[in-house]
């Protein structure tokens, strides 16, 4: 996707990390760059690396995404022998990965027919009417908005997000129409929250190889734990640890203080009782005298 925002073809982030490097395809004339975890590369080879499209002997003209009209970008095989973008697979909710670790093949059979009927408003806006009806569309994440668009069209327009799902360790892949994206940005101080999260992911994904699963939750759940969500979970857990630590520290201090108070009070009480009884004893002695 040459005209696309730089960096990873899947998440658009330009940064790489030691545990999750940006890997560049060595295929002739191929501009694919992907994070190891964004493309499901289990082991990064020390020598040249080729994306699946360059690896296959299929004629380039035949390799096209079944979910959108764009041809460049990071593609994988579908279970029916075709091709689809990894990013298209992530953002169309019903698409699954047969193997969540290698993120292939891409399973399209659960995508409802409805998605293939919708037309992409971004294609229409750009005068690509013939392509608007290609593939499948995602819809604006704002409730009530019916704008539909291709995942890659939204990616090129910078309208894709990763939001925290209903469960803490879930990532919801979603996008907004331009109108609602701008509205959402305006409502977020310092472009925080959602947009921040979009950039925050990916580092450290390799430390828990086994669990950076792209497994989907129940099919009824809107949450899409398809990919790379445990970074959020790690962050959450560490924050939780710090909070618990501070709380327990406070509690300990409070208990110590309370204990000290009780001791002091008891001491004062016993002292004053002794004093009282002594003075009373003296009084009685005086009285007898
Ligand atoms: Zn990436
Ligand atoms: Zn390639
Ligand atoms: Zn696509
Ligand atoms: Zn489009
Ligand atoms: Zn919208």
Automatic annotation (TrEMBL):
Predominant localisation class: nucleus
Domain of life: Eukaryota
UniProt subcellular location: Nucleus
SUPFAM superfamilies: FYVE/PHD zinc finger
Membrane-spanning parts: 237-260
Any GO CC annotation of this UniProt entry: nucleus
Keywords: Membrane, Metal-binding, Nucleus, Phosphoprotein, Repeat, Transmembrane, Transmembrane helix, Zinc, Zinc-finger
CDD domains: PHD_AF10_AF17
Keyword Repeat in annotation: yes
SMART domains, sorted: PHD
Domain PHD-type: 5-57, 62-181
Gene Ontology molecular-function annotations: histone binding; nucleosome binding; zinc ion binding
Transmembrane helix found in the keyword field: yes
Region span, Disordered: 203-230
GO biological process terms on file: regulation of transcription by RNA polymerase II
Protein name, as recorded: PHD-type domain-containing protein
